[in-house]
């Protein structure tokens, strides 16, 4: 921990299980390149949870990352019975590392079904929004809800980041994978923003692909992709799918990059059963350190390590996860072989050129989108009731007949059930009741919303409301299956 | 359209693009087996949309399916500019076909990266709940929301269906793939229900797998899976991933099965550019018809067609999608070859035995889960504001100081930002403000909810509320990142 002022300080989190061995290997290899880095060791994970800290991340570690702005970390465990949230996710969210970057490339000696096809792609996954926010509410005793939230600002950050990352690696295209055909507001936001910003990167090809087709294509012809940008939950699945194309989690590095802070880590878990046995594959953390060096613009050191890893793998020095744990090269030998290969260059495998990554800077104001006009045109009230749709509909119409709103329809999980449509729909005790303002055009004041809720409360239980809004004349809500 | 009373009536929807050719091939092959089926042709899709019907499904088609209870259909198109919803999805939802079944098996002559590994799995995807309900609301001009709804009843239906389907095909195991580690209420519901019902099927192995790992494993070692059951959106991705393992959409049949009605269809689209050219691959619809025959317990006819398809493919008779459109067998020749091969049996490829599928029958009452005790303990109010978190927090505390609720925290997309945590969080104009009842234990009457909303309305815009409920002493809501 020298603190020499010409050195960059990096927070080093050994983590749990096999983490310390992986992180130690990466640290020694980085040091062997002479990269001007000083390390500040910090704690997080299982031991911290067990001390009673429900986040798994102590304030000193938060302080260290806030100061150094860069962390290299091993996997963190959330021990069963301690804490509700993953410490890995906590770090990503608290430091607004909105871009999860996972390179997926074929490596020498690591044979898979796809060997020889030259897979070399990067998955860029939005890292702080979407279902991963984990905002859940039991709507009724038997119906659970999670909110999927996607913002224009968050989408613009991740879309621009993907193009900038492609530029920094001299790549040729960015594909955007969403489910915009089913979720036109949430998933559609990323698609629309992606298509809007793409012309700012004219040297890069760009196209949109439906996310399920993207999964299909990744299995069928992964070599067609260069950079893929996607939303958080879908990206979780696509990233893990992709890492399997090239040899699994032992070789899967990742970066979590925000505009202020970046955290580099392996994708794999803490694998406690292999810990301390000098048998594990530290490549994922080593390649994460390579990503970190490039982020710090230490391009020569990064390139030296990448070449040394490729030369090592080409020479057949492979860990137990690849060749079997009875025959694998010990972790420390693997590490030292890579150190010994620093300076050598592979002739057969590509190491990309890199240039500095430009992080997108957006308008910092919270109200990122400012419409010229807007109005509240109705209210969705989610009611819990054991009544039938017809009974509930009749009751709600009676209760609200003299308000400024009228009941337009009731739906069950997105399918209209009142007025009746002739469909066969299995209903639950969870009903979405849509009320629309009678005047047209209209703009509903809150007093009328409060009155409507008070009327419904006379006879029914409601647990959730959503205002129906219009922005610049466009409906800000979807219609239900069967709704006109 | 004979109407012989010993025959089963099936609604036949030719659909759009290549649909009529695929459906015609399947129909003629089924007829050639002598299966006791009469067909009732019905319309849906592009032409119906263009006539101005926004669902794409005319009442006569609804009536036909309601009467016959079984449909075989081609792909339906939603022409750009007509209708907001897919007619395929409309049919699934209006008839409560809650189980989407997609078998994925290796076929002779259809070479893929995975050939020779004996892939033979079935993806069972929940088909009517989840994000696919498409319930979206713009929360602010720049923040979109989609509701992910998962019910205990829906989960029990799909979990039991998966086990029953495995039984009907004499399979050995069912894996359940969810993201329960991040979404413990929604995704967790399927996991918990699956684990609760599994002991009712003691002859079947069962285990849970995190959905991203499932995607990884499907690429790495797909032969480990037999039946996989999963939620709707994740299942969409996993299904399309899986179909690529064995040769793509031309060979991917599917069934949408509910307790009253079943709809059999290919997974592929209408591919208009190949329509009418006698070049397309009708196998997916043919194999969908095989699934239909088994559903109708016409096991011998189903087996005869499955053998004939395998014999045809083994003999090298392959359509243009497999061998190139300049060299492919015409659709009609392919169809007639299969008809000619009826009665032949393959020696090299497995055709499974089948027994009747038992559909799970559950308590029909809408209030499927009835807790012994419950209470409302607070309210989440989602506020749109250009203020900072600190300013908004101070204002809300002042406004609500003499109510029965106190402001516990404010979060931005699931990460706590007030009281301040020291985290770096990029905030938007969308804030989730959590109010908790001051008494403990307490149960908040609606009057206090209305009063709180009225207080907030004095100075701020809110667009969404969620009651915070407890059921049998368990919290019915999640905590945020950084919340104690």
Task: Please describe what this structure looks like.
Two copies of one chain form a homodimer. Chain A is an alpha/beta fold and 484 residues long. Chain A has 14 helices and 18 strands. The first copy, chain A, has helices at 19-32, 46-50, 59-68, 87-94, 152-168, 186-197, 211-220, 232-245, 283-295, 299-314, 320-323, 331-340, 389-399, 446-459, and strands spanning 8-13, 37-41, 70-73, 99-105, 120-126, 136-140, 143-151, 173-178, 205-210, 227-230, 253-257, 262-266, 374-384, 405-412, 415-418, 430-437, 461-471, 474-475. In chain A, the strands form three sheets. The first copy, chain A, has a ten-stranded mixed sheet with strand order 2-1-3-12-11-4-5-10-8-9, with helices on both faces. A six-stranded antiparallel sheet of chain A has the order 15-14-16-13-17-18. In chain A, strands 6-7 form a two-stranded antiparallel ribbon. In chain A, helix 5 (152-168) crosses helix 6 and helix 10 (299-314) crosses helix 12 (331-340). The first copy, chain A, is elongated. The termini of chain A are far apart. At the A-B interface, helix 3, helix 4, strand 6, strand 7 and helix 5 of A face helix 3, helix 4, strand 6, strand 7 and helix 5 of B. Strand 17 (461-471) of chain A pairs antiparallel with strand 17 (461-471) of chain B, so a sheet runs across the interface.
Quick synopsis:
Two copies of one chain form a homodimer. Chain A has 14 helices and 18 strands. Chain A has 484 residues and is an alpha/beta fold.
